[in-house]
Amino acid sequence: MSLHLRDLAVGYRKRTILTGLNATAERGELTVLLGPNGVGKSTLLRTLAGLQPALGGAMHLDGADLDELSHTDRARRMAVVLTDRVSPGLLTARELVGFGRHPHTGFTGALTSHDHSIVDWAIDAVAGTHLAGRDVSELSDGERQRVLTARALAQEPGLLLLDEPSAFLDAPSRVALTGLLRTLASERDLAIVVSTHELELALRVADAVWLLDHEGVLHTGPPEQLALDGVISATFDTDELRFDLTAGTFVLRCATTRTCRVLGTDAAVLGRALSRTGWASSTSGTADAEIRQTANGYLGLADGKSTDLPDVAAVVSWARKQPVPVVRRADPADVATALARASAFSPYFAVDDIPGRTLGSIYADRDALTEAVRRTGLRLGVTEARVAASTWQFGLAARLWSIALGTVAAGDVVADLDRLCYRLDDDATIRLSLPEPGGWTAPDLTPLLTRIVIDEHLRPLHEGLRKVVPVAEGLLWGNAAAALHGALRLAPTELGKQLLATPELANALSPQGIRRSCCLFYRTPTSGTCGDCPLDGATVVTMKESTA
Ligand SMILES: Nc1ncnc2c1ncn2[C@@H]1O[C@H](COP(=O)(O)OP(=O)(O)OP(=O)(O)O)[C@@H](O)[C@H]1O
C-alpha cells in the first residue's frame, strides 16, 4: 500500500512547473523530498494534498485515484502540514489539534473520549503537552509548527505530507521531529513525504529520497543510491561545499595541501576539524602527519616530532602551526615490514610488546640508571661501576642503532624511536618495544636520525649516566660510534656511514677501538678477518663473547 505518482505534471494555470513525475512513497517509510529553492517541492506537495489540481498524469493512494476522492475521504486518508501561516483565531493548541479529528467525527463535530485520547497522543508525540492550554495566536513559530504537526497526526492519516516542518524549529527540535516522523512511519505504518532543506539529517534518516534536480527531473531511491549515482553532489555541491560520499555529509572544499592520517574513534570528527585548516584526512599510505587518539587526548606526529594534544582545540591549533613538512608519516605497511626486519636485527626489540614507560624517561631517572649499572656489574662480575655503566650504555646504543638502521635499510623509514618503551630485566638487559608502531620517511633521513638517536637518546643518556657514574664522555661516544659500526654491518646504508661523520662519533675513538667494541657486541668470530667490517679488511681483535 502506498502513494504512486504516474507521469504527474504540477504547476499553475499559466506555468507548468514539473512534468513527468514518477515515484512511489511506501507505507512504513519516511520519504524525503529534496531540491533547490524554487524547483517545485511545495507545488508538488500542494498538488498531492489536493490544494491545487494536477496538470496531468495520475496520483493513487492505496489504489484509489486521489482526484476521484471526496474532500472528506481525502482528509481521512491524508493529512498535510504546510509552511503557510495560519490564523487560527482564539483557539487553544488543544482545540486546534482537535480539528484534526473532524474527518472522523459525526455531523455535530463533537469529540468522543477516543478522539480526545488521540488528541492527547498527538500532542504528546510532538512534545507539546506544555503548549496544550495556550492560545495558538500567542505561540512562537516553532511552537505553532509543532501544534500543526500534532493536528495532522490527530487526523490518523495513511499518508502524511509535510512541507518544511522543521523550518521554524531549533536544532534539538528539528532532530526530535525528524526522529518522530521516522518512528511514526514505521510504527503506525504511515507513508510520510516530507520536504526539507535539512539535507544531512534527512539523508541519515530517510528510507527513500525524492530529489528534484535543477532541471526539475525527479530522482528516487535510497539516499545512498542517489549519493553513489552522484545526483546529490550534482544538485547540491557548491564552490565551498561538496558532498562526501563516505561520511554522508557535506564538507568544506578547502585547498588541502597536506594529508594527515587520523587514527582512533574520533577520526571522523577530527578529520572535519582538520579540513578547515587545509589538511585532508587519509587512512592509508604515506601522510604528511598523523594524529592518534590516546588515553589522555591525542598525539600529533609531524615533522619527526610527537606532541601531546589534550583536546580538539589543541589539535586544530597544532595543525595550523605545522610547516609544510619535509619529513612525512610513512605508509604503515612499509613501517610494519621495516620493523619486522629491525626486530630480526635486534633480538631485544619487539613491536607491541612492552607498553609502559618511554625510554626517554630513564635518562633523567637516577634511581633507574643506578639500578641498571648495579645489575650489569653483578652480571659481569665487575666491581668497577664505570665498566658496568659503559657496557650497559653500549648495549643500549647498539639496540637504538640497530632499530634505526634496520628500518632504514628495510623500508627507507625511521621508526618512532621517540616512542620506544623499555623494560629492564633482572640481569639489566634492556628490552625495547614500540607499542604503537609508526615511522617517518623523507628524501633524506640523516638529519632526522641524527636528531632522534643522537640528540634525543644518546646525549641525554650520556648526561644521565655521567650524573650517576663518573664515566668519561669520550668513552660513551666511542661506544656509540662502535655500536653504529656494528649496526652498519647488519644493515649497510649510506645514511649510516654519513652518521659516523657526526662530530661526537667521528672524534670519539680510534678505528681500532671501534672495531674492538663492535666485535665485542656483535659476536663476530673471535679471530681472523671480518669481511663485513666497514674498517676495510682489518684484523679482528680477539675478544670474549659479548655479554652485553
Ligand atoms: N501561485 C503561483 N503562481 C505561479 N507560480 C508560482 C506560484 N507559487 C509558486 N510559484 C512558482 O513555482 C515555482 C516553484 O515554487 P515552489 O514554492 O513549489 O518551490 P520550492 O521547491 O518549494 O521552493 P523553496 O525550497 O524555496 O520553498 C517557483 O518558481 C515559484 O515562483
Word description of this protein:
InterPro entries: AAA+_ATPase, ABC_transporter-like_ATP-bd, FhuF_C, P-loop_NTPase, Siderophore_ABC-ATPase. It is a peripheral membrane protein. One of its GO terms (biological process) is iron ion transport. It is a single chain. The chain has 548 residues and is an alpha/beta fold. It has 3 domains: 2-237, 3-Layer(aba) Sandwich (Rossmann fold), CATH 3.40.50; 254-327; 332-522, no CATH class. It is built from 19 helices and 23 strands. A 6-stranded mixed beta sheet has the order 6-7-8-3-9-10, sandwiched between helices. Strands 14-13-15-16-17 form a 5-stranded mixed beta sheet, with helices on one face. A hairpin with a 5-residue loop joins strand 21 (421-424) and strand 22 (430-434). It binds adenosine-5'-triphosphate (ATP). Adenosine-5'-triphosphate binds at residues 12, 15, 17, 35, 37-43.
